[in-house]
Sequence to fold (348 residues):
Amino acid sequence: MNSKDIQMKMIQQRSGWNIDYYLNELNYTERTSHLVNLAIKTEQNIVFNQLEKVINSFKTSLKKLKLDVKCFDRIDGHRLEELFKSCEKLNKLAFFFECNRNSIAFNINDFQHSFQSEWWLDKCRPSVYIQHNDIDGTTVTSLPLCFSFKFKNSLNNWYINKGYEDLSFIRFPTINQIHFVNGSHRSISLEDLYFIDRVFTSPNQSLCFNYCDLKSVDILFYMLMDDPSMTPALPNVNHFIIGSKTRLDSLTLCVWILLAVNLIRLDISNLTTFNKMELAEELRNMMNDDTRLKPKFDRIKVLYIFTRYDDDDDIQTKNDLVIAFQKVYSNNFHMLFNFLNTVSISQE
Fold:
């Protein structure tokens, strides 16, 4: 391997990450050859000053730097600017930080502001996308995106240091787990879905909405059924997840199935037992009334009905639910049990 183009993959040992050991291993060859290209990936959380020590060891020669780091500390733009500015020859920078220290009070507006200094807003610096929630912690990544992570955000409030008024330039080609934590006060429009398809371009996507209400759902249904030339809104989605217990009607669910033309897995497990029973009956009636729906539903190979938290339902109720959904399809189904005790029915 050319020492001037070396990649470092750093894995935390059980006894801790011995940074001096790694540096000593690199000292003779890489330092004397003036390392210019460095890629660091950590498999487990590290302390930020360990990363600083590595980069500072090569700051006089580094030109390209790629970081994929899980970190105990919550870094911010000021700290990263200080680190990257010290690499005077650096001309190509890509980074992804996943920070999980949630005990510290967090203000995302202040955090975004730390990436809006004159240095960060220079056209030579990458844009920065920021994502935060109290469960998963903070994600910070440079754009254009070259890392994969679970996207979890609202539909219309993205934090990008160079502004998010115009999101037309954003592309997330490496992400296939997408979760929109939208509120019940705002229905999802067809334009929203075309926007999602334009931004998230990877195949085999898993898409989750907390609330699935669609704007003008009745009009959408007739458009999708009567106009075969209509551009598919979600062609890359093959797994759709309903993320909340809020009641979902059969027409809305049917439209979601029509919108995702390559859907093969549908997860309704978060809905209430009563709503699931209601859906099974209503969907069967819809298919009886309009036989064109049958091939649309037959695309779905796996239907997730229960979660591991459904222990309150007795065995008879669960059996009734499975039988009810079997009647929606003419195909034979069998029960699947996975390690999470989630039950699904799958077409054979």
In short: The radius of gyration is 24 Å. Residues 176-348 form one domain. The longest strand covers residues 64-71. The longest helix spans residues 273-289.
